[in-house]
Write a structure and sequence with these properties.
mainly alpha, 2 domains, 13 helices
């Protein structure tokens, strides 16, 4: 009964069991582990340069890279988050006080329309949107209350937040210092062809790096451009709406327009013609163009994913994993396509009438770097 096949099966079951148990243990620190890995991939080129300049002193290079990541990424994100929470709390209070009333804004737009247009839209049933406006207003209020509640929960669980933050920084230091040996260990341990493992690891690193770098840059640019436009037009809460546009810009093509387009329509309908035209032109020609120019360069060029795949995978990832999903979703999509590309390449290689030449997806490390 104690055959080599049985021993192998039992060992594989044991390996799967302890792996799942280890992942279960790490589950409470999922966010900390995930962002430590993502930031390590993002800042690894900087770490390698510092290590060469410091003549191989890995600990010092990792520490300097960690400090730079704090200054460049982590601390600014914490400050922006704190500002967003403060503005969201103010937004909730203004909605409760009746200072912000979407139904009133909608009625102002309708009252400003010409009579013939009002009659035509009435026959189309457009004015039945008032119930939808009420639901949207209620949803915005609930969303802002949820954000404020989450902020209060973070404040009440300061110890847990600090623990997650400390774990992330701790892991980031060691992943920077030992990332290359760890990737080699994974490559040598995974029961796949070495070329396939190397290709998939390179694809994973490239997609994570490009997604974070590209999406964050696009979000910052669109948030700043939108906030400047709102500030110039005297719209209250310019910083808050700029941050909202930055977050929504994680959705390709449609993101920031969900904020500036309704505001431009409202300005046009209520008689502020030049302000509405200026905001619409700024949104289309500047904010929209920045997305169309920057995103393909920073995201699509490296991930080699079509825009519609990026959009769908981003929305799906964020619905499943929250804010982490804007990285996880496209990464899963890219790995899915990479695995099928490798499968297709291997299938062609095994085909008796396979033609010579370069494969569609070369499974070597040199393809990515």
């Amino acid at each position: 009964m104690n055959t080599p096949q049985l021993q192998r099966l039992v060992f594989l079951l044991l390996l799967a069991g302890v792996t799942l148990a280890f992942l279960w243990v790490l589950a409470p620190f999922f966010g900390a582990v995930f962002w430590a890995m993502a930031l390590a991939l993002l800042f690894n080129p900087l770490y390698q340069r510092l290590r060469r300049r410091l003549k191989g002193r890995a600990n010092l290079a990792a520490l300097l890279t960690l400090l730079l990541s704090l200054v460049i990424v982590i601390l600014p994100m914490i400050m922006i988050g704190a500002s967003l929470i403060d503005d969201a709390t103010s937004f909730v209070q203004r909605m409760r006080a009746g200072e912000i009333n979407l139904r009133s804004y909608f009625q102002q737009i309708v009252a400003a329309l010409p009579g013939w247009l009002t009659d035509w839209l009435g026959r189309l049933g457009v004015f039945n949107l008032e119930s939808l406006i009420d639901k949207l207003s209620s949803g915005l209020l609930q969303g802002s209350q949820l954000l404020a509640t989450r902020a209060l929960a973070i404040g009440q669980n300061t110890f847990q937040f600090l623990l997650q933050f400390a774990v992330m920084l701790y892991l980031l230091f060691f992943l920077l210092r030992d990332g290359v040996p760890l990737s080699r260990l994974v490559r040598d341990s995974v029961p796949l062809a070495r070329s396939h493992t190397q290709y998939l690891l390179n694809k994973f690193a490239t997609v994570v790096r490009a997604t974070i770098k590209g999406n964050v840059v696009v979000a910052i640019v669109q948030g700043i451009l939108g906030s400047l436009a709102f500030w110039a037009l005297g719209i209250k809460g310019a910083v808050f709406w700029g941050v909202v546009m930055a977050i929504l810009s994680l959705l390709p093509a449609v993101g920031a327009a969900l904020v500036w387009a309704p505001v431009a329509i409202y300005l046009l309908a209520t008689g502020s013609i030049w302000q509405g035209v200026a905001l619409a032109l700024w949104g289309v020609l500047v904010i929209g163009l920045s997305d169309n120019v920057l995103r393909p360069i920073l995201v699509g060029k490296d991930t080699k994913l079509p825009d519609y795949i990026v959009l769908i995978s981003t929305i799906g990832g964020m619905s499943l994993f929250g804010i982490n999903g804007f990285v996880i979703g496209p990464t899963i999509a890219a790995m899915f396509m990479a695995c099928w590309a490798l499968f297709r390449h291997d299938d062609r290689q095994r085909s008796p009438d396979a033609q010579g030449g370069e494969p569609d997806v070369p499974p070597s490390a040199d393809d990515e770097h």
